[in-house]
Amino acid sequence: MDGILIVMSGFSGAGKGTLLHRLLNDYDDFAFSVSMTTRSPREGEVDGKDYFFVTKEKFEETIKNGLLYEHATYCDNYYGTPREYVDSKLKEGKSVILDIEVQGAMQIKEKFPDTLLVFVTPPSIAELKRRLEKRGTESAETIAKRITRAKEESKWIDRYEYIVINDDLDTAVKEMHDIVLAQRFQTKRCGTFIKEIQNELLSF
Amino acid sequence: MDGILIVMSGFSGAGKGTLLHRLLNDYDDFAFSVSMTTRSPREGEVDGKDYFFVTKEKFEETIKNGLLYEHATYCDNYYGTPREYVDSKLKEGKSVILDIEVQGAMQIKEKFPDTLLVFVTPPSIAELKRRLEKRGTESAETIAKRITRAKEESKWIDRYEYIVINDDLDTAVKEMHDIVLAQRFQTKRCGTFIKEIQNELLSF
Prior knowledge:
By secondary structure, chain A is α/β, with parallel strands linked by helices. Chain A is 45% helix and 21% strand. In chain A, helix 1 packs across helix 7.
């Protein structure tokens, strides 16, 4: 059975990055997605492992040919998710989690309705603020900006299918895994088996 | 958090009864549903444990007052699922599984959209036939009837949200449990938490 394409969104400070790394580390049935970018490789970065490094022309051609799940511009560089790489992992039966903000998530879901949308949130906004302040690297202004953004993002939570409350990391990792496991038994993902059973019954 | 109301259907011979007993036995987070009936108690049967034994008048009053999840007539006796009992279990946080045929399942889903519909099937119809024959208690005619019924039921599988293939019982029990666990994280079941987060954000 093919793996499941999962789009994970959530407030900045919800711990999405850590959650993703733990899932990839703890479970064999998940695979990384390698992004494509036009920015230059930093020292030690390996093409095809950290990113697929391409020229601006190549990236724009890839967009034009519909070969990206989504893309965005950041600091004058393109970043995107190549479909070919992700699809090959899905075909191997691995589930692939993309960490994408709300608007991109909605676009992917519209084009690929089988995508699983999961929203990651801290147990409360007070806790989110505490986490952002604890980092010690962000000004009060930046934190205020993040909270304003969270306010906007929170309007979209209902559009996600699942919510993972990242209070205790171990619990959140397990919950995320449980959610993905259960998807395999959705009738909409078992079409081939259902057809087989129905056809077999026709022969009786 | 409230438990989840689960309606389980499936072909006769799929092993629903065994699956249900194992779930109730292996996991604390499930509860039995006690049916109401107008038939007389058999020796050893306890009112409120095996069934709620009531008169025909009492049963019809219960129907009229909308206090049953579903009901059916079998051999001139009524059988039904009392809402009060099931709801009290759900409030305790226990999930309740009802073993109900396709038409009843559709009726419950229409009235209570949060009901989880799970279809249980053997790995193939050949295997279903083998199991029915192995029982040794059923005539070729009865088996043929069950297969004809399965043909009818199989048209409804797509209306179920999940499918559990009961090949190895231990695996099926675990899959069923995984499915129910994951439901708790559906955004549609986390409305209170989502509202809290949204309200908290408004205060920033």
